[in-house]
Amino acid sequence: MKSGIEKVVLAYSGGLDTSVIVPWLKEHYGCDVVTVTADVGQGQKEMGGLEKKALASGASKAVVLDLRDEYLREYAFPTLQAGAVYEGLYLLGTATARPVIAKHLVEVAHAEGADAVAHGCTGKGNDQVRFELGVKALDPSLKVIAPWREWSIRSRDDAVAYAAAHGVPVMSKKESVYSRDANIWHLSHEGGILEDPWAEPDESMFCRSCSPQEAPDEPQDVEIDFEKGFPVAVDGTPMDPVALLTHLNSVAGAHGVGRADMVENRLVGMKSRGVYETPGGTVLYTALQGLEGLCLDRETLHYKLLVAQKYAELVYYGLWFTPLREALHAFVSQVMERVSGTVRIKLYKGSCVVAGRKSPYGLYREALATFGKDDEYHQADAAGFIRLFGLPLAVKALVDRELAESQGSPGETAVSSLVAGRCDA
Question: Distance of CA 358 to CAs 22, 333, 363, 364, Å?
């Protein structure tokens, strides 16, 4: 038994691991355990009966929090606005949910007068980092306990045996061979056959999207309204974030949209294979990118793409509560001031493409871009622009030529000819 800790707040999912952690903490630390279950949209099947189960496992108190709206408004949607995608495919579903859970773990710890927080993450994954960095950023005085880095339990059989010995209720049904994480934004799959990067996922594994081959034979158009980069309505119907994403998950999933299969670089150094289902999120990312192309000037859009990559890394690495992430968020918020409008998305057999976009802030002008007759763009002006824009290239080519001919550097007359467009170089 380890002294010095009287009360621990445990991030509790109700699965085998966190259920076993409750008596393990009491046994090894001699402390009270308060469980915190965050509802971030994992579904009623996973949420049902968790308070009763936590108390039956030995917790002195069980706290259940509905964080779905907060999660979307303050974590998932800001990441969407940033355009952050990790390694080109992962829409950061798990990574965006961990900081909001960490925040509330700390808040409950303060309310309950706890000395420490605990989590059920293994020592191989990213989530241990995300939880613990969140706690450090919000209250570094709280101790963090990670049983998987301490205990002797090494398998499901070990955990089941420990649960039986301590009277912990364990679900009798066989668990999936896959390790999954679910929230309203996405569903991830790891383990099982996926541990072979060459193996194709079994279609029965997918839960939120149908097979593209089995999707409807007719495409479906969906219109998304954005205000300052924030999705606010679908097909003209205003919706709050939870209702909006729930609806898009259903519609897009029915068309096989939102699947991603990748081998990613984990923060802890290893590569892992994950398959993600993010139907509604895929629609929103595609739509917002289409609207940005209409509303943002070239230099801002190109710089935002650089910010998006860094933003994605910060979120993936668990660095949500950091000055840099907050500074990048301020930049994104400023950029989003004029990203308002409507985007029409076409869904068809796994594909999700922009079919139309409109905005009062749109920078596109048909009179300038048309291939027909125009009076606004003077094409002769392009010659001078190209001459000056390409001047460094022409000067270098001239120098290379004259060096090759062993005639030294170009003279003033040659350079003057280049500027005037009268040189053959």
Answer: 54, 20, 10, 10
